[in-house]
Amino acid sequence: MTAVGKVTQFQYTALYKPNQLIYGSGQTAVITGWTVKQAIAKHLQPREYAVVGQLYSPTRGINLLIRNLLNNPHVRFLVVLNATKEDKNAGAGTCLLDFFNHGFEKGVCDTGRFCWRIRSSIPGYIDEVIPANVLQKLRECIEIKEAKSIAEACDFVRTFAKQETLEPWGEEKEYPMPKAEPTILPGERYGHRIEGKTIAETWVKIIHRIKTTGTIRPTGYDGQWQELIDLVAIVTEEPEDFYFPEPNYLPIDRSFLQEYISQVLDDSPTQEGVKYTYGQRLRSWFGRDQIEQVISRLGQDIDSARAVMSLWDVSKDGNDSPPCLNHIWVRIVDNELSLTATFRSNDMFSAWPANAMGLRALQRHIRDEIIQRFYHQLKIGPLITISQSAHIYDDCWENAEKVIQSQYPQIYQQRDYADPAGSFVIIVQDNQILVEHMTPGSGEIVNCYSGKSAKKLYQQIAADCPGLQVEHAMYLGTELQKAEIALSMKKEFIYEQDKLLKMIK
């Protein structure tokens, strides 16, 4: 704190996310939710506010915000902007307001640890290491205002700035933050393929793969993420009415999903502080409706490979906040309409399920419009996303591990053994191991292998079938080794595929 004449100036010091904030010298903290912080800061003078920052998550962001406020007791006023329509944005701001208005109680957070749970219909948590009396004093010493528009938020800030400067309400306080350090197994960094029947199943497999072999790297947002590069996720059988398991372990709900799908499909005008929506980029950003263009092109030429939509604006997107979703391709093969989307950067834990469901809704819309206008008989094919940077932020690692522990074993046990590369029949006959490779479904024989060495046989099969699923390849190695043992022991053992070796009596 410094005094210049009769004007007292303060310096806000952020312990967490320091590079994501806009700093001033006043006594008011401004929380903008998902509205970009610059949309408010540009209307204010730095002397009128202490800090301006966004709040994305009630379950993770509020805990960091409270810690920053405790380290800056000169902040005596708080303005919370609840302006955008997105449920999760309103949820974060509303939960923060509930902390100051209704308090907190002992509880358990979404990862199972004891914590202070905010008294709110929207889940929000604060680490138990912060004493209750400290949190209570914070609530009592900061005056809060809720704003429904940027203009109203600025009016509140200016009103507070005109008041007499108040002394800090206490001493700066800092409390240790628990850290989750992941265990990483060796694996490929580039090029990964994950397939699941539903978005929920595929999401759990994605989270497991990233948490198992992902590389830990610094982010541009004052933290770390665990990352795989070029991850292809394929959803094959998502129901028309999107899959929500019970209990719902996906990080979205139906009300938010409805709003999100609208932002993908519709050309609705954005609110102040929101730069664009995907729907704007697809419908009107470049002066044409790309969704309509795709429907028309495929309707007139069902085999077209030119049904492409672009969201990347080369004139603007080299700067701040470019879209994560960049391109979308739609293809029809054998009357099956598939959609492929590329993401330059993809938060796989918090964002990918909504991304996938929004794209699935777009895929269904295009299919339905082609059927209605051009009378093609089409069915929904796979949804494919290609994420150049597929990552999980460090503040989600603990939640990701919980999802893996609770859901992955069940999904893995219920896996479908069918391999698109086909199946293999193994027999021992005429003093040799014989292997027939057959197509999936029809069972047509496409290749035959014979020999006495399991190693030579699986090397030949691997060379001819590079797309074999990992588990299928391991199974073949096991079966071929059993066959070789039976063959080498002459008449002492009998080999039958998928059964234990039998000794001849």
Q: Explain this structure to me?
A:
This protein is of the alpha/beta class. Helices cover 33% and strands 24% of the residues. The chain has helices spanning 38-41, 61-70, 87-102, 132-141, 150-162, 199-213, 254-265, 278-283, 290-300, 352-374, 397-413, 454-464, 470-488, and strands spanning 2-4, 7-9, 22-23, 28-31, 51-53, 77-81, 104-108, 114-118, 125-127, 143-147, 190-196, 215-218, 224-235, 308-310, 325-333, 336-343, 346-347, 379-393, 423-429, 432-438, 445-451, 493-494, 502-503. The strands form 6 sheets. Strands 11, 12, 13, 14, 15, 16, 17 and 18 form an 8-stranded mixed beta sheet that branches. A 5-stranded mixed beta sheet has the order 3-5-4-6-10, with helices on both faces. Strands 7-8-9 form a 3-stranded antiparallel beta sheet. Helix 6 crosses helix 11 (397-413) and helix 7 (254-265) crosses helix 10. The longest helix has 23 residues, at 352-374. The protein is globular and about 100 Å long. The relative contact order is 0.09. The mean pLDDT is 90.
